[in-house]
Design a protein that fits this description.
Elements (H helix, E strand, L loop, with lengths): L1 E4 L1 E4 L2 E8 L15 H30 L1 H15 L1 H14 L3 H17 L4 H21 L14 E5 L4 H5 L6 E6 L7 H9 L3 E3 L4 H4 L5 E5 L4 E4 L3 H22 L15 E6 L5 H6 L5 E5 L13 H14 L4 E5 L27 H6 L1 H14 L4 E6 L5 H20 L8 E6 L2 H5 L1 H4 L5 E4 L1 H8 L18 H16 L3 E4 L9 H8 L3 E4 L4 H9 L3 H12 L4 H11 L1
Parallel strand pairs: 3-4, 4-5, 5-6, 9-10, 9-16, 10-11, 11-12, 12-13, 13-14, 14-15, 15-16
Antiparallel strand pairs: 1-8, 2-6, 3-7, 7-8
Helix pairs in contact: 1-2, 1-5, 2-5, 3-4, 4-5, 9-20, 11-13, 13-14, 19-21
Amino acid sequence: MKTLQGIAASSGIAIGTAYLLVEPDLTVQRTTVTDVADELAQLEQALTKTTTELMVIQQRTADTLGTEAAAIFEAHVLVARDPELLTPVKQKITDEQLNAAYAVDDVLETFATMFDAMDNDYMRERAADIRDVSKRIKAHLLHVTLPNPSTIHEEAIVIANDLTPSDTAQLNRQFVRGFITNIGGKTSHSAIMARSLEIPAVVGTTNATQVVAKGDCVIIDGINGIVIVQPDDATLAHYRMQAQHYATERDGWATLLHEPTVTRDGVHVELGANIGTPDDLAGVLENGSEGIGLYRTEFLYMGREMMPTEEEQVTAYKKVLVGMNGKPVIVRTLDIGGDKQLPYLPLTEESNPFLGQRAIRLCFARPELFRTQLRALLRASIYGNLKIMFPMIATLEEFRQAKSMLDEEREKLTAANVETAPIDVGMMVEIPSTAVMASVFAKEVDFFSIGTNDLIQYTFAADRMNEHVSYLYQPYNPAILRLIKMVIDAAHEQGKWVGMCGEMAGDEWAVPLLLGLGLDEFSMSATTILKTRAQLKTLDQQAWQEIATEALQCGTADDVLALVKRSL
């Protein structure tokens, strides 16, 4: 029996037989060809097959996981058709009389390496896209079959060095009980998709593919981030009981689908869902959400070749508002920049884009972009309970400017006899300066929504996607808890409410503390809602107020976590 420690990426217990998703050798040799025309024809065939494959995967993903997840493969299709990538490949074949497989490998790896070196997370992710597409083209040229997770037709645990988005999208939930990878983190593509598929996953084990053999019995403990290989009888029996207990818990959560979220001592809090597109509504409603706590509108702008029109935006916002049938829908205005780029909106290259012209700063720099979205939101407001929040606000002047632009667009619509509805206007708290000045902001906003993912990385000056400083991504650190408390207290003094839409809102160890600190609304991935509702029903807010106060005096994140675990 062997035990591996990794990162718990998706909760649950899974027991099954190992299926090693190991890629074939795609090493290519440089050779000279005599028939250049034939080599170019083989390349075109490989490109056609690759594009067709990717479009099939894209459609399957859209059908099963929604358009947000499918957008990854739309990007892959664009790579497979990109003349800036393919023209140098064809020139290499023609000018140097090289075999197509080598030309593809050489040129696309050069581009991928160039993207890898960029000081921009979004661009670095494009390197992975290029390599994924390159791998498919080479496989067709070499007449090699890539492993296909969709062909798994018996219960299995998938073991891989990493799962590309295309691998993960093809996992069949009927048979794949979970997966384990050598690399990756909680925010990687594979982890996000595992949560969407609702299957247990442990990532970042470093050596699972070396330790696990095909056919081994494997246990995934997606709650504690543990993998057990070839367990003994006692361990197997223990985890079978744990799996049964978890399944019973899930059945219990399902009974809370239409229940309000009320604590043991009768305090009501609101549980909302984070969405990216109108297609995510089905999962929101199936999981008993009390509203949309974060509608990431940037996905309307991504995965396309031109800006969405005002009419297209009105249609998208209307669909969500009507679908939520009067429940609150909090829309975050465009949050582009940093790790999110638009191909049709070239931005000035910045040495540190996460601290540069992104989100509201970009909207001020491109007012026509911002005003179009504001008009669309105002026009859609008549169809439901719309609230708007501005991202990346650092100063009071920024909030006032954004709100002024919204008011100006409303006045123009009113003058044109276009009907609009009253809208609560709030802001994201993602920057420490905002938390420090919360008592001032609270006098002018209708609500706050704390974005902990960015608040944590900005507080500790540590890129949350950088593995070298990942230890500084500390949601339980007393510094973060104090900032959260500062925001909540400031809002409540002015009779305003506070929500949270970062990963922390659905974290089972953070939820009791956030309840104790007085958080009013928790917004999370839809699949986490019922579990969190069940947890909150067991908690006493008054008792957790005292524990949260104690946590604020702790010295480290580990001290806080230990306190929470003792108290639970």
